[in-house]
Amino acid sequence: MGDMFRSEKMALCQLFIQPEAAYASIAELGESGCVQFRDLNDEVNAFQRKYVNEVRRCDDMERRLRYVESEMKKDEVTLPVLPPGEEPSAPNPREIVDLEAHLEKTDNELREMSANGASLDANFRHMQELKYVLENTEGFFSDQEVINLDVNRKLDPEDPANLPGAAQRGQLAFVAGVIKLERYFSFERMLWRISRGNIFLRRADIDGLVADEETGRPVLKTVFVAFFQGEQLKQRIKKVCTGYHAAVYPCPSSHAERTEMIKDVNVRLEDLKLVLSQSADHRSRVLNSASKHLPRWSIMVRKMKAIYHILNFFNPDVTGKCLIGEGWVPTNDIPTVQDALARASKISESSIPAFMNVIETNEMPPTYTRTNKFTNGFQNLIDSYGMASYREVNPALYACITFPFLFAVMFGDLGHGLILLLFASWLIIKEKQLASIKEEIFNIFFGGRYIIFLMGIFSIYTGFIYNDVFSKSMNIFGSAWHMNYTRDVVQDENLKYITLRPNDTVYKTYPFGMDPIWQLADNKIIFLNTFKMKLSIIVGVIHMIFGVSMSVVNFVYYKKYASIFLEFLPQVLFLLLLFGYMVFMMFFKWVVYNDTVEGALSPACAPSILILFINMILQGSQDTPEPCKEFMFDGQKSIQQVFVIIAVICIPWMLLGKPLYIMIKRKMNGAPPPKPTSGGGEGHGEDDAMGEIFIHQAIHTIEYVLSTVSHTASYLRLWALSLAHAQLSEVLWNMVFSMGFKYDSYIGGVLIYVFFGAWALLTVGILVLIEGLSAFLHTLRLHWVEFMSKFYEGAGYAFEPFAFKTILDVSDDD
């Protein structure tokens, strides 16, 4: 937890590495994940860098790996999952050559088998379709048609009937083929139109599904035979067949020739089946062999590519015998980096060991906050608002407590908190098994499991305070109220209400939380409204005062001592003298006014805090009946006037204090005023022009004064959501679950189960999920806007070290 108070100290380090040890050094640094390298070759084109050829080799190996993996997915070959901790290290140069050779061999072999397999599949498919054509056209021909339908038969040139000019009206030709059934009817209409009805078309559907040559998916196909007359019409038919992707096959009209051709096709089909089976077995052996090594190969190639990518950030020295690189390193990890460089020099047997120097710089370092699995979720909430400036106070440390507490104030129900606690406990207990799930929505809940766990615990606590369990109260310690009316008075039909005065009916203080008797009171909502409204203002003011106070820690660390008196002091005085005073009046009213005294301090004379506060600001007054008084104590009016005057003075104090201080400081130092910049800078500092400083301070002052009012009112959401949550819970109990108690006998027992199921479903769906998400978002807003805006700048950038673990995790997500 101590590491979370502010980000870690960073050092800009310069690395001097021998070229022969550069690869091993970066590999060791990648395993440690402690260095964020800087690109020293910004102006150099990516294709002109030293290690561009090695990066291209890695790209080529990645391409081969993707192809092999895609082929495995086609054949549904499962890849083994590497257990955590057994990931291979980056390959050494000799392993790189062997790995490249293995990948090239596997890739070429698979591509050759794929090409041969596609050719064999096409031949097998064509042979099958030819067989379908020969078998299904058997009924299209008769013995009488053999004479006139054989388009391939040789004609006797000496026969006068076969002369070129002779009429051949009795002779028909035909074209046979296979077409998709869905295209056949359009195909038939097209043939009818081009021949003007002079084509006789027959078809026979193929039983079962046939593989489509275009997509490979099984489709319905049909065999067709088109009878026609004339060579010109034959050419037209073939063009239509080509347009409709219909396969045309040779088909003799003679029965004997067809029978002989079917036998030949069957023999060729058997040969093709044997060859295809042997090819599939060989392909399966190659893929299974490659699948055993593919996960390791993939990790090795990704690590190798990342190493060469980082090496392109380095600059060679003048002699070319040394590589120079720069990077940010957490000061606590400098020994780790030095050990990694020493190991790399030993592995590569370099004659000169690599070494590292820390160099001074005015550049703002990256922000790095060391977290664990518990604090990581809270840190992510803060980083979503903006990355903290370097060494700025980290709000995540305090959000570990304030975030679940403010959530619980809105979500206060012991039963609903127990549901959250059980769900989070399951995520925590099973976190090793559940960590492998990659579903996005589930990962959001899993990443915030410790946040949900604390929200559940705090909701149980506030549930005890509110004495609320699924809208019901628990009488653990026994009610502190007792009935002082007789039975006759209570049973009087003309009596509508019974008033229990605390002075007469309260005999002790309920030890913890709300007295359960309020569950029966008619003014329950009025009482809880007042209680929760005041509670939300008290919590909000304390939260904001704490946020303003945290700015002192930043001012002290950055040695801006003048800002403590010119910014913090007027801000905290403005907040305390107005809204801190209002909180004081709430406690004073609770303590002084009670039912045990009469006169000006009786509950009937208690003034409204809101009216008192408005009159304090506007310097107004109100008439009060005797014996009541306008103010709660003597001298209150004078004190309020002093507070308002000081609060008003704080406004010009905030507005002009810092700019005038900077102006005087510059005159005393004799420094020339800086020239106004054309923009593009981040933030506003003491080096800006005076005009910009005055404008910035005016904006900051106006924002703070107005936001103090609006932010205080914003904390009323704690009251509003708490009231809405309690009322929704009560409505679900009364309108759903309690309906099962209205029936007697066994029917009531069955209905209780039915109504309980509906009530449980609605409770989890509406009150836990939807209301929980609503309370979570409102809590997030209270931290981002109302709390962090008081001291948090969030103008930094994240520390992104070169780490193989991060690279592999990102690749797995992609």
What features would you describe in this structure?
It is a single chain. The protein is α+β, with helices and mostly antiparallel strands and 814 residues long. It folds into three domains: 10-110 and 285-359, no CATH class; 117-149 and 172-277, 2-Layer Sandwich (Alpha-Beta Plaits); 374-671 and 687-790, no CATH class. Helices cover 58% and strands 7% of the residues. Strands 1, 2, 9, 10 and 11 form a five-stranded antiparallel sheet that branches. A four-stranded antiparallel sheet has the order 4-7-3-8, with helices on both faces. The model is unreliable at 143-170 and 676-683 (pLDDT under 50).
Would you summarize the structure shown here?
The protein is 58% helix and 7% strand. With 814 residues, it is of the alpha+beta class.
What labels would you give this structure?
single chain; 814 residues; Alpha-Beta Plaits; 3 domains; 4-stranded antiparallel beta sheet; extended; V-type_ATPase_116kDa_su_euka; membrane; ion transport; V-ATPase_116kDa_su
Taken from the alpha-carbon principal axes, the silhouette is: extended
| Average pLDDT metric | 86
Largest sheet: 5 strands, antiparallel
Q: Please state the structural category.
A: alpha+beta
In terms of DSSP E residues, the strand content is 5-15%
How many strands appear in the DSSP assignment? 11
Low-confidence blocks of residues: 143-170, 676-683
Please bin the fraction of helical residues: 55-70%
Rg is 43 Å
Q: Given the structure, what is the number of helices? A: 24
| Structural domain tally | 3
Q: How far is it from the N-terminal to the C-terminal residue, by CA?
A: 33 Å
